[in-house]
Design goal:
Helix content is 32%, strand content 28%. By secondary structure, the chain is an alpha/beta fold.
Length: 355
């Protein structure tokens, strides 16, 4: 039996794939309802459609433009080559598990893992006192992964603070605000509601208040949660225990997006569990380079001041670099970073921030 801890999209997609391949799968979720509480912005690049079918049941909005604001009020508007998707995270997470249940996956809500013992068989202990023995354990239990912690795997997290607000919004445009923490965002659900937040290592609430002070908004609800920072040295497989998705810190450090990588990781892990192979190497080969490039960019931009952001946006206002970032997906920076530098060599000046 393969046991999956955590019923987020990566765990749900893995359960579905494994069940299709004839595997016996059980999924354990600490919460009563799959997909709640919501702790994610829920916007994904066009790469989502390359991995799974897009269903109306979980779609909220599609985005065709990005508008980036610098601290000195300059604006870069990008017309995306491929539309982005804004999803209802509860429905998005649930649809994987609804499909998996039909294929025979057994679900156990309100089962929070507290401990497990390694061996040929893995014995899991849950907060309700139950114990379950399994052949293979997959930790897909998010940023505060119990599985990762018990394996001794550690990673940094950044605070993602986000609220849903009512106001007036361009429903076709994803807004980005530079100079607030790592960056701030506004992801519209429609013309009257948007998900607005930012990522920061400190003072997140103060920064968010500063960012939205002139936006004439009405607060609806919070959707906040820590975000793992990618750690290249993390060990993803400990014998018959594996880490997946946010629990594996497979999150892009530039935009904090992890769902697309989680789904790709689920595909790679399913192949390894059924046919054998090296899970760590499979992930590294498929998307490790992109996560690493994003991490280096993140390390550079952590040292930015407002003047640096102003200079950066001014460079992207030039026609050639602007066209490149309009054309390529943000989930694959390794495919376009060198093209950007060739088009705008002054970007190399920011490398000094690494040292």
């Amino acid at each position: 039996m393969i046991s999956i801890i955590g019923a987020g999209p990566a765990g749900g997609y893995l359960a579905k794939i494994l069940a299709k391949k004839g595997q016996e799968v059980s999924a354990f979720e600490e919460h009563k309802t799959i997909g709640k509480p919501v702790q994610c912005t829920g916007i994904m690049s066009g790469m989502l459609a390359d991995i799974i079918p897009i269903r109306k049941e979980f779609m909220v909005n599609t985005i065709n433009k990005v508008r980036i604001h610098s601290p000195d009020k300059k604006v870069l508007e990008l017309n995306l080559d491929k539309k982005n998707y804004v999803v209802d995270r509860t429905k998005f997470d649930s649809h994987f598990h609804d499909d998996a249940k039909k294929l025979g996956v057994k679900y156990y809500p309100e089962h929070r893992l507290t401990d497990f013992s390694k061996g040929k068989k893995v014995k899991m202990t849950f907060s309700n006192g139950e114990t379950v023995t399994t052949d293979t354990l997959v930790g897909s239990d998010g940023y505060k992964s119990t599985v990762a912690r018990l394996l001794g795997e550690k990673y940094k997290t950044i605070v993602g603070i986000q609220g849903r607000y009512s106001g007036k919004f361009d429903s076709n445009t994803f807004e980005v605000y530079l100079g607030y923490g790592t960056f701030g965002w506004s992801v519209p659900e429609n013309e009257s509601v948007s998900r607005i937040g930012l990522g920061s290592y400190s003072h997140s609430e103060k920064l968010l208040k500063e960012m939205i002070k002139d936006m004439n908004l009405k607060f609806i609800e919070w959707q906040s949660g820590p975000i793992p920072v990618y750690k290249p040295s993390m060990k993803l497989q400990h014998d018959n225990v594996f880490l997946l998705g946010d629990a594996a810190a497979h999150v892009k450090a530039t935009t904090f997006g992890g769902i697309v990588y989680g789904l790709m990781g689920a595909e790679e892990l399913a192949n390894v569990l059924v046919a054998g192979g090296d899970y760590q190497e499979a992930c590294k080969k498929r998307f490790g380079k992109d996560l690493l490039v994003s991490l280096y960019i993140h390390k550079i931009m952590k040292k930015f001041n407002k003047n640096d952001y102003n200079k950066l946006l001014a460079l992207f206002l030039e026609e050639k670099p602007k066209k490149i970032i309009e054309t390529y997906e943000r989930d694959v920076p390794s495919q376009f970073l060198l093209k950007l530098i060739k088009a705008e060599p002054r970007l190399l000046l920011f490398l000094r921030k690494l040292f």
